[in-house]
């Protein structure tokens, strides 16, 4: 079979790899679509994964082989799911911290989603695989994992109808957050970014206002607009400096959600007195548990997520390198790229 294999940031090869064989409790799917995630892009550009890796985890496909002990899935089923499964029994799982389970990162699909065929291990078949509803395209279904991640992130904080929420970052993740927030009847969603391309899109995804922070100092601009601040701030861009900004524009009693990883210069200075004086909070959220996928499928199916507008590019699986390069072109209006196995 063919797969797009990472060898270096400028060396992604569409080449022959071994087709996986399945066990009695496993499935083999033909990958139909796989979304290009920001984490895939960072892993490639930062060369933080081993040479020879096959990335991709936002997959949707068709079951083409079924292990003899599998009873819940059949040939021809259209499915989607995630890549990591918790054990459900350890201390972290018993406290609801499924993504912190020691077994979580030890589980994975084989290989990644940027391949023609993918083996779905027993744990995934049992707890992390979902049938795609009739009428939903494979491209739409590939959004299930990122939407589920955003649902998981928003569960980390109490969001009330009437809240004012700031989303920092107008990429695909920020825009998914915006749409989910508007569905919760929050009073206001403000989106910030440094790209006019992305900010212009934000109004179509639930934003009531946008601020280009390359042109305006966020705190000064809000003061000039007599804006009282935000109940919730969701950081949907991997820029550590945003954390101190988020705390400074947060209302008393508010919470910052750190959704994106801070990979570069993660140390920031924060006025620690705000935790006591203003009862401000910071919560972190990582990945997604199995419990958000059905919610994500419903959000896509019921139009809470405008998948047609979010997916701006569909490209062949062989064009992974070109797709990543396209995301770095600031002159292009790129939101979500989905790779197709045709």
From TrEMBL:
Pfam families assigned to the protein according to its UniProt record, in alphabetical order: ADH_N, ADH_zinc_N
Official protein name in the record: Alcohol dehydrogenase catalytic domain-containing protein
Membership in a protein family: Belongs to the zinc-containing alcohol dehydrogenase family.
Source species taxonomy: Bacteria, Bacillati, Bacillota, Bacilli, Bacillales
InterPro entries linked: ADH-like_C, ADH-like_N, ADH_Zn_CS, ER, GroES-like_sf, NAD(P)-bd_dom_sf, Zn_alcohol_dh
Keywords noted in UniProt: Metal-binding, Oxidoreductase, Zinc
Domain Enoyl reductase (ER): 8-339
PROSITE patterns: ADH_ZINC (PS00059)
Keyword flag Metal-binding: yes
Cofactor: Zn(2+)
């Amino acid at each position: 079979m063919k797969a797009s294999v990472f060898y270096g940031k400028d060396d992604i090869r569409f080449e022959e790899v071994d087709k996986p064989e399945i066990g009695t409790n496993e499935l083999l799917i033909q990958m139909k679509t796989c979304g290009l995630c920001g984490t895939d892009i960072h892993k490639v550009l930062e060369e933080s994964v081993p040479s020879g890796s096959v990335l991709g985890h936002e997959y949707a496909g068709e079951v083409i082989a079924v292990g003899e002990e599998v009873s819940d899935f059949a040939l021809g089923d259209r499915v989607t799911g995630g890549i990591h499964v918790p054990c459900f029994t350890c201390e972290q799982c018993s406290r609801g911290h499924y993504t912190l389970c020691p077994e979580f990162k030890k589980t994975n699909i084989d290989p990644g989603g940027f391949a023609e065929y993918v083996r779905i291990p027993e744990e995934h078949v049992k707890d992390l695989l979902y049938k795609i509803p009739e009428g939903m395209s494979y491209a739409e279904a590939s959004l299930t994992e990122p939407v589920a991640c955003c649902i998981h992130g928003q569960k980390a904080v109490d969001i009330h109808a009437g809240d004012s929420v700031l989303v920092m970052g107008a990429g695909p993740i920020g825009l998914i957050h915006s749409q989910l927030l508007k569905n919760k009847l929050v009073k206001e969603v403000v989106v910030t970014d440094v790209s006019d391309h992305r900010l212009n899109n934000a109004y179509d995804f639930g934003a009531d206002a946008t601020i280009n922070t390359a042109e305006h100092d966020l705190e000064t601009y809000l003061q000039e607009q007599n804006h009282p601040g935000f109940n919730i701030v969701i950081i949907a861009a991997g820029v550590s400096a945003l954390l101190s900004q988020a705390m400074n524009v947060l209302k008393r009693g508010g919470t910052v959600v750190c959704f994106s990883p801070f990979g570069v210069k993660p140390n920031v200075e924060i006025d620690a007195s705000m935790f006591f004086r203003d009862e401000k909070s910071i919560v972190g959220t990582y990945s997604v548990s199995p419990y958000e996928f059905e919610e994500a499928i419903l959000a896509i199916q019921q139009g809470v997520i405008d998948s047609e507008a979010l997916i701006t590019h569909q490209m062949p699986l062989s064009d992974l390198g070109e797709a990543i390069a396209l995301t770095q072109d600031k002159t292009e209006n790129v939101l979500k790229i989905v790779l197709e196995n045709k």
